[in-house]
Design goal:
The chain is mostly helical and 781 residues long. Helix content is 68%, strand content 1%. The protein has a two-stranded antiparallel ribbon.
Length: 781
């Protein structure tokens, strides 16, 4: 290769006349960097999740930034593009793309994969900007410092304003979400930004240093108020890494004592923020009767790998491990873990919502792309760590650049911990921070290295590819955002008309026209943010409007979006039941329930069909199955009622209730059911006085019409007609007894010498179809 084609130049600053922040190109670059940093502030609009608008924003920003860089010929040098880290990153993108061949839901893979591409392009754009404008890195830290100050002040203000409304401290903290969708995401966002504030403490002087110290104090206070355990681990780990980096720089450098002053200031602010935050939280907690469980010590002590200590994360991790063991090479398809995880959740996630994530990005990547994809993904972090170690220990790199790299390493530590416990791969605001961290480390690493000159080549092709791919990601993100808007408008309605209470009544009036709202859903994505197939949501709305034929039509159009929820079969069963096809309905009901036996809707459905078939064996089988997975006290009362209605055996039903009371001894519904069944047992033995006692006990729990009716009949059988009339007055018109109650009231009136009232009730009983002896009507007109 000749020298002309392979010219080598030492790069300290790029070969350009534009080296200051005052020229137009660099000002524009600063604006672009600011636009990336400010993704955190993009509001939710009318989207079911704030990330919908944020991913769309990033996709559009990537597109215009890539065009801008191409027009200004700001290419990443070919040598950097051929670097190990970029090769690993490309390998991960390729492996993730190849997983489309094994994916269960290709559309969902497309949606998730487009977000990966958005993150990669954001990284490449930022790397190009940082490489050609290394003096922009300090401005970057200032931008991030201002943003995290704004975020932290917003958290503190939200905390203070909420306290006047809600005195439950845990609830106040749980509702602090900022513009992130969840407090854990907000906490991670702040924790990852804190190292940039620490850098400002090192680099600024005078009042600006004091402002940066105040910023660190506010950030720590906000973080301790949010009370997220993973963020505690992140901030403590960042502080440890910070001390290690300073120590290495100190002993490898000039050993200037002034280098140690800033760590002392940082430590002082950090400790002071802990003291202040815990004093505030403790003072507030003491003023309420609520037992606050959010002190730093208690939260740290609660961290563990038990089910409770990990907030069920260990259950999710074990599920991911099992899936990876069965799909070690290919995984289940990028972005499809939210589908494959569902069968593992049936023991702890009842209802229709799903966990979606493994709460560990490394495990989720392995589940999606197989072990090869996970190894490459982990290698990305190891590669950054090696580069950072070389930078910090190098004698050729300035103290300023070492500190900038140290900041990136600290922030990367915070990201790594969040990735271990949560799912930052999904969140655009966190992915922008990761892109910034990676770009900073790469930029500093190649600052004093010999690189290939900035000629046209693969780097130009890369920019063109970025533009074309960005167009695809804009389209996918826009369609997804539109779907999220529709989901936002209908999700509350959908959940309301899918509660078990809905199934018991089967009466729900939609606040919109089903066909109109269904037409607003785009074709991408085909599952909602809570995992339900869009086709099933559409079909349920049509079912609510009694358009049963269209329900089947919509379900047939997309059968395999997410079959692991078995909602498709549930709806088909409901439609079959409406058409009086009970055998078909029963087949679908069993298939849905026994594949997701913790779901109360499915349980109510199969129990109703078993009741219609007088199938006490299936009823008992379903009851025993749901007890393995669902721990609701309602199950016992519901089963006892239905079992008694079929068998008319109060003692067998009592056994069910007694079993439930051993687990829920103070449950009012079961205590009511126990008294009712005890009353029936005595009534059947003609022990009417004892029966009355138990039915009267029932009225302590609720005004129950059947219990009052049984009291009436018991008094009647005891010949206590006046008492029978007194209680019967409470239920007249509230229950259809087909004339029996009216007949009994007529006899009571006769027995108490009130002939006119007796005639009236007996005539009414006869008109209702009850057989009344004509002799009883003698003298009645």
């Amino acid at each position: 290769m000749n020298n002309k084609s392979k010219q080598q130049v030492a790069i300290n600053y790029p070969v350009t006349k534009e080296t200051g922040l005052g020229d137009s190109f660099n000002r524009m670059n600063l604006v672009i960097v600011a636009l990336y940093v400010l993704v955190q502030l993009i509001p939710r609009f009318d989207s079911v999740d704030v990330m919908g608008g944020q991913w769309l924003y990033l996709a559009v920003l990537n597109f215009f930034t890539s065009i801008y860089l191409l027009l200004n010929k700001r290419f990443i040098p070919n040598t950097i593009l051929k670097n190990t880290f970029l090769i690993l990153y490309l390998a991960f993108v390729v492996i993730s793309g190849l997983s489309f061949f094994v994916t269960f839901n290709a559309i969902e893979s497309l949606v998730t994969y487009s977000r990966l591409l958005i993150s990669v392009i954001a990284f490449l754009n930022l790397l190009s900007i940082f490489y050609h404008n290394k003096n922009i890195l300090k401005a970057l830290c200032i931008l991030i410092g201002l943003l995290v100050l704004f975020q932290s002040l917003a958290v503190i203000i939200a905390f203070i304003s909420s306290y006047g409304i809600n005195t439950n401290l845990d609830e106040i903290i749980e509702n602090i979400k900022g513009n992130s969708g969840h407090k854990n995401i907000l906490a991670a966002s702040i924790a990852i930004k804190i190292p940039f504030v620490i850098y400002l403490i090192h680099s600024l002087k005078g009042y600006w240093k004091l402002l940066s110290l105040f910023n660190l104090f506010v950030c720590c206070i906000a973080l301790f108020f949010i009370n997220a355990r993973s963020s505690y681990l992140a901030i403590f780990s960042e502080i440890v890494i910070y001390f290690i980096i300073v120590a290495v720089i100190y002993y490898k450098g000039s050993k200037k004592n002034n280098l140690l002053r800033n760590p002392a200031l940082v430590t002082g602010v950090f400790i002071f923020s802990i003291v202040v935050s815990q004093f505030i939280l403790k003072s507030i907690a003491e003023k309420t009767s609520h037992n606050f469980t959010g002190s730093i010590s208690s939260r740290i002590e609660s961290i563990g790998f038990s089910e409770v200590g990990s907030s069920k994360r260990t259950l999710l991790w074990n599920s991911a491990f099992d899936f990876i063991k069965n799909h070690p090479i290919t995984g289940g398809g990028y972005g499809n873990w939210k589908i494959h995880s569902i069968p593992y959740e049936k023991g702890f996630q009842p209802g229709f919502a799903i966990m979606k994530h493994a709460h560990n990005d490394f495990l989720e990547v392995a589940a999606d792309t197989g072990i090869p994809g996970a190894l490459v993904y982990v290698a990305l972090f190891l590669c950054l760590g090696i580069y950072s170690l070389k930078i910090i220990t190098s004698k050729k790199i300035t103290l300023e650049n070492k500190m900038i790299c140290g900041v990136a390493v600290m922030a990367l530590t915070g990201y790594f911990i969040d990735a271990f416990f949560n799912f930052p791969l999904e969140r655009p605001n966190i992915q922008v921070l990761l892109a910034i961290i990676m770009a900073v480390i790469m930029c500093v690493y190649f600052n004093n290295r010999v690189v290939e000159s900035n000629k046209f080549g693969i780097n130009k092709i890369v920019l063109w590819m970025q533009i074309l791919i960005s167009l695809l990601t804009v389209y996918v993100s826009y369609e997804t955002f539109k779907s999220m808007e529709v989901q936002y408008n209908v999700s509350d309605v959908w959940f309301d008309n899918n509660k078990p209470e809905w199934y018991e009544s089967e009466q729900y009036q939609l606040p919109f026209n089903a066909e109109v709202i269904n037409a607003r859903f785009p074709s991408i994505p085909n599952i909602s943010e809570f995992g339900m197939p869009i086709s099933c949501m559409k079909a349920k709305f049509l079912f609510d409007e009694k358009k049963y034929d269209k329900v089947i039509e919509v379900l047939d159009a997309d059968k395999n979006a997410n079959s692991n929820l078995y909602y498709d079969e549930y709806l088909r069963g409901l439609v079959a039941m409406k058409h009086s096809q009970f055998d078909t309905a029963f087949k679908y009901a069993k298939y849905a329930f026994y594949n997701r036996p913790s779901n109360m809707n499915y349980y109510y459905f199969i129990q109703e069909l078993a009741f219609k078939r007088r199938d006490s064996v299936e009823m008992e089988r379903a009851f025993n199955e749901i007890l393995k997975w669902n721990y609701s006290h309602q199950i016992y009362s519901f089963h006892a009622q239905n079992y008694f209605k079929i068998t008319q055996n109060p003692l067998a039903a009592l056994k069910i209730v007694d079993d439930g009371l051993t687990k829920y001894p103070s449950d009012s519904s079961m205590l009511f059911e126990k008294s009712f069944l005890e009353g029936i047992a005595h009534y059947n033995k003609n022990e009417f006085a004892e029966a009355i006692k138990f039915f009267m006990d029932d009225l302590k729990y609720k005004d129950d019409v059947p219990s009052i009716q049984n009291i009436v009949y018991s008094y009647f059988n005891l010949g206590m007609y006046q008492e029978a009339l007194l209680f019967s007055n409470l239920i007249v018109g509230k229950i259809d007894t087909k004339g029996r109650l009216e007949f009994m009231r007529g006899i009571c009136y006769q027995k108490t010498g009130r002939k006119k009232e007796a005639c009236s009730e007996l005539i009414k009983a006869k008109s209702l179809g009850y057989q009344v002896d004509s002799a009883l009507l003698t003298g009645c007109k």
